Amino acid sequence: MKLTAKGRYAVTAMLDLAVHEHQGPISLAEISERQGISLSYLEQLFAKLRRSTLVKSVRGPGGGYKLARPSGDIFVAQIVDSVDENVDATRCMGKADCQGGETCLTHELWSDLSDQIHQFLSSIDLASLIARREVQKIAARQDALHDELVRMPAEPEVV
Q1: pLDDT at 157
Q2: pLDDT higher than 90, residue 2
Q3: Cα separation, 89 vs 98, whole angstroms
Q4: Domain extent listing, the chain
């Protein structure tokens, strides 16, 4: 059982947005560069995040995305749920038809584990993640790398 790329990328992008929320609206291109997530994939994820009212889009020059509410009010489970991700430890996807159309011997165990994981993710908000020293160090490193790339002069065109 694992969380797929969709859920992991959505949480990563939302955390990036929360870390940089003091800078105003953040473009998906910036998140893409810092986090190494394809821009087209981010566009798909942010359409779902916007429909779930977790982010707001700002149009025009200097536009981008910002959190729709304070980072302390956005929980990891909400992000995962908003992109139609399902953390499910059962092999039947929770349908209880694991063994020839019937419930298997360990279905309830794996179903309970799935519930525990969701409950755990429901207890973690973006603000508490930002407060972690490791997250702050990684964000600072990513920002420094991003700033360095932005300042690099373009290669002269060879004719």
Answers
A1: 64
A2: no
A3: 12
A4: 1-85+125-159, 87-124
* 134, 136, 141, 146 alpha-carbon torsion, rounded to 10°: 140
Cβ pair 18, 124 in contact under 8 A: no
Q: Is residue 156 scored above 80 in pLDDT? A: no
Alpha-carbon gap, residue 13 to 28, rounded angstroms: 9
36: left (phi over 0), alpha (psi -120 to 50) or beta: left
**Closest residue by Cα to residue 46 from 55, 38, 37, 35:** 55
Q: Give the residue carrying structure tokens 């566009």.
A: 43
C-alpha 74/C-alpha 131 separation (Å) is: 14
CATH no., domain 1-85+125-159: 1.10.10.10
Neighbouring C-beta atoms of residue 50, cutoff 10 Å: 15
pLDDT of 152 above 80: no
d(CA 116, CA 110): 10
